């Protein structure tokens, strides 16, 4: 009997010909095509697959780092988890559980995981995975247009608009970068808790922000969460809630390189890509951003092969 159920085949980051054995891979790409609470334009559940497909067009050679980084690091692409595509329902509790458990197991196996969303609420589960493994405190560095600091939004505390509030409530320090859309409740919380926020308006004309942001991170260990709407929508128009005035490409890369070389980045996620029909700009840019993260980490950790 042939099944009519949709099958999930995994598309490998960069293409199957470069995929190493799981055991030897330092890096695992974890697709999390989950979408439930997005409030404006939909489609971020299709982000991971679009990014993986676009990654086949990347050059393996990183011209900045002067290496074919993928052969140094070894990049393994995991099967998707918490998949809401094709009308499947996954509750927030189930998404958080499977995300936390998958992360915990990959981190225990010493993998450097880059989780690919999917909506930003997933980051709560991702960060919980790190908390299970790391006794030591770490800072969550967020690139985003939005504060995501609301207690609750549209009747759920697990909305993508609340994810950093969940992180703050875990007691972890945060550094928020590129912020340019917050509500009164968030502005009040930032003042009350004296949260560290680098606002896009202040960053726009002054590259000083990069060193200031690095210096403001209170711990050696860092988890990096990138909501791709933090980058300017002229570079990544495929997001659910676009906001003008975002980070440009080279200041983003300069910040990320500094972050990886000066801190111990224990993991990262790249969230909220919602592909636009008939344009590949967003998914290609997100694929390239992801490969840059791998490159910076590979150099920082000395995974370079002779
Ligand atoms: N993380 C996000 N993408 N957050 C988006 C929140 C959108 C809130 N719009 C509120 C408009 C009501 N005045
Ligand atoms: Mn955002
Ligand atoms: Mn966000």
Key terms for this structure?
alpha/beta, 8-stranded parallel beta sheet, Ureohydrolase, binds 1-{4-[(3-aminopropyl)amino]butyl}guanidine, Ureohydrolase_dom_sf, manganese, 35% helix, Arginase, Chain A, disordered N terminus, metal-binding
Unique ligands: 1-{4-[(3-aminopropyl)amino]butyl}guanidine, manganese (II) ion
Instruction: Round the Cα radius of gyration to an integer and report it.
Output: 18 Å
**In total, how many domains does the architecture comprise?**
1
Q: CATH architecture, please? A: 3-Layer(aba) Sandwich
CATH superfamily: Ureohydrolase domain
Count of alpha and pi helical runs: 10
- The overall strand count is 10
Please describe the biggest sheet, giving its number of strands, its sense, and whether it closes into a barrel: 8 strands, parallel
What is the CATH topology classification name?
A: Arginase, Chain A
Order of helices and strands: EHEEHEHEHEHEHEHHEHEH
Which strand-content bin applies to the residues? 15-25%
Helix fraction by DSSP (H/I, runs of at least 4): 25-40%
Using the coordinates above, name the CATH class. Alpha Beta
Organism: Planktothrix paucivesiculata PCC 9631
GO molecular function: agmatinase activity; metal ion binding
InterPro entries: Agmatinase-rel, Ureohydrolase, Ureohydrolase_dom_sf, Ureohydrolase_Mn_BS
Keywords: Hydrolase, Manganese, Metal-binding
